[in-house]
Amino acid sequence: MDSKLFLRANETYDDFFNRCNNLSHFDCSEEEMLWWLMGSRRLPLKEIVPISVILVVIFLTGVVGNACVCVVIVKHPGLHTATNYYLFSLAVSDLLLLLFGLPNDLSVYWHQYPYSLGLVFCKLRALISEAATYVSVLTISAFSLERYLAICHPLHLYTMAGLTRASRIILILWIISIVCATPFAVYSDISYRDYPPNSGNMSLDSAFCALMAPSPLLELSSIFFFFVPAVLILCLYARMGYHIRSTRVTEKTKIGLLNGHVHGETRQAKSRKAIIRMLAAVVIAFFVCWVPFHVQRLFFIYGYDLPQFHVINEHLFNIAGALYYVSATVNPILYNVMSGR
């Protein structure tokens, strides 16, 4: 909404802001105060229409793609492997993220306040979105470790092999994620502004579902559920790449000996590298999609005093928000493109 709509006869912009920002001579209607403090109830159409189109496409492709991944894995016994169990868990977490997060965020673009879905949904949405995020990064870490053991320490993995073990690990990851996401639900609340300011009278039109968490919560979330797993995953894939390369050099020295055996090793090596390429693509896509999200979170905390904070934060928020949901959509596409199975 343009501030011109609030200007009185012969009033300048400075006069408008002074009467709505000067508490000792406060002369501002509730609608004017909310615009001054919270911005427009709805963003301009030229901004929200393209954003809405992008988010709807992400939602439809993500829901259909991840649902198909779950159905295919469940219905085909040949795909019941430890790696695919992890991918199934990842698809479920992506579905939850899309179903509980994206429609809510899309509605906020069209109607930023007042929030009307109630406190229960406000907290539930925070819990599920955060838990699904944690499940994703922990699942990617788990199947990266699984691939590392299969390639670099196959005998050790053989002694631990079994779908039951993978199922138990996935269950533990979900429990850890839900427990660690619980503080976000606890600290999520519907906030209100006072009208007039500092009067103690809540403006019901100012209702907004927001995270009222103390600062360390967001930093700890980024550290333990992004940066630490990122370092771990990068180290694992670097070690796997080195091992595959050294193994390939060793195999070349065996050419001419036991052709059938050499061909078997070659097929095994190709299959192993195909799996690595697919999982590496999943990991790379995950980091590309999630780096802006965590940068925006940290910038919101530590960049508030910068002169261009609001402009930078708005652009970061839009980019990070879109990539946030792209991360839940891109995995089924990668499975289809990079894996014949």
UniProtKB/TrEMBL annotation:
Domain G-protein coupled receptors family 1 profile: 65-335
Keyword Nucleus: no
Keyword Iron attached: no
Subcellular localization(s) per the UniProt record: Cell membrane
Membrane-spanning residues: 48-73, 85-104, 124-145, 166-187, 220-238, 274-295, 315-335
Keywords of this entry: Cell membrane, Disulfide bond, G-protein coupled receptor, Glycoprotein, Membrane, Receptor, Transducer, Transmembrane, Transmembrane helix
GO (cellular component) term, any one: plasma membrane
Lipid bilayer topology: Multi-pass membrane protein
Main location: membrane
One Pfam family here: 7tm_1
Any one Gene Ontology molecular-function term assigned to this protein's record: neuromedin U receptor activity
Family matches, as Gene3D superfamilies: Rhodopsin 7-helix transmembrane proteins (1.20.1070.10)
Family: Belongs to the G-protein coupled receptor 1 family.
PANTHER family: G-PROTEIN COUPLED RECEPTOR, NEUROPEPTIDES CAPA RECEPTOR
Name of this protein: Neuropeptides capa receptor-like
Organism per entry: Trichoplusia ni (Cabbage looper)
Lineage, uppermost ranks: Eukaryota, Metazoa, Ecdysozoa, Arthropoda, Hexapoda
Gene transcribed to yield this protein: LOC113499824
